[in-house]
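Researcher: Let's try something more involved. This one mixes different molecule types, so please make sure each is placed in the same coordinate frame as the others.
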Amino acid sequence: MLVYYLCLVFFMIGIYCLIAKKNIVRKIIGLVIIEYATNLFFILVGYRHNGIAPIILPNMKGDISGFAAKAVDPLPQALVLTSIVIGFGTLCLMVALAIRLNEKYRTFDTTEINRLKG
Amino acid sequence: MVEILLIVFLVFAIIGSLIAVETKNLLSAVISAGVVGFGTSVMFLYMGAPDIAITQVVVEVLALIVLIRGTIAIDNISIGGPRDTLPLFVALVFFGAFVILGIFALSDMTQFGKPMMRVSEYYLNNALAETGASNVVMSIVLDYRGYDTLGEATVLFTSILSAFVILRRHGKKAVSEKDLEHVGILENE
Amino acid sequence: MSKEKKKNEGMTLITKTITNSLVSVIAMFGAYIALYGHLTPGGGFAGGVIIACSFILLTLTHSKNISLKIFPDLAASLLDNIGALGFAVIGLLGFTAGAFFYNFIAKDEPFGLLSSGTILFSNIAIMLKVMAGVFAVFVGLSIWSRIVSDTDKEE
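Model: All components are placed in one shared frame. Result:
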């Protein structure tokens, strides 16, 4: 259970970085840390003691129920695969917005980017 | 044995993310975030998820490239000005409440190492017979739950298209232009 | 005279020689991971990203315009659309056998390349889509030049 609490600390560092920093690129780094912590938590939930990866090898072909008793949970891994790729897509969009904001306002400070028009 | 290794790598990742949050130089912060990504990828390998480890390493290298392009675009780094304290104080109060509720919620979870595989029993027993694929994770992603993959392809398509449109004002030579009164995405060259 | 200028831009000669030999190996490795996704770990997403990384390596060691000559941004946009539409069409063709996304191709004996029906073609479609999308983002971020407007603040 210590692993779960350490994962919560990891998530909290990301949220602190998102709230308390003023630079836009640092806020983006905070969001990236939150995504890493969330994906890690999903895989931690699905782990089995001394488990093997859920891939059927040719010498296990006749003994499927033995394989099912030893394998790690494959369903959270399918969800995390989707989540990693979507995280990359949103990171691209955030960095594109930050570059355009920098060209318009000449700074990365969020307390100066406070006009909604344009 | 695996648990001790997981805790070591998790502490390493926490130290790396603390460096990424607190250091003054922006380029060092981005590189520390990349190191944290490598640490989580090694953790995925120890937990029996090689699919995820490959995808995490490759996507994290690309995220480093994109973030470095974002940080070298700046002219002035200095962020000064007084720190406004009241919103920060309110945010930290909610932060503390979230931590306490999180600890209560995590103490009710199943024990680490004994997953309750209600749906996955069916997937593990029948994946080879029904779909013919040996990689059970791939058969879940592309056959049993293929509709979610269609949604994910749509999200990736839309976000890359929007990033493309936002960055589209490339020019052949530098022109001195005024900001336009009406903003349209077809105002090009 | 312009040939001399072309030889001097980019990285050193050692890096260029190694890159010329290594780019095709990286692309082939990415295609292997994507095509055999139903037998070994990997899948379409990781394979597509690896092939895009080979193009990025080519751009970093030679000049900026060489990857636009090999793989123009119009072709990247076209491949992106073909990949996304191909995946949706594979799902719609499942209606011929009963349901949306039904695995309707006949299955071979296991551990072979054609052993799992539509999963192989879905991996190919996703590989094309991710490769073209990631390369388009790289072109938009780093290869296009940016105009910087002369006026500072808007009225």
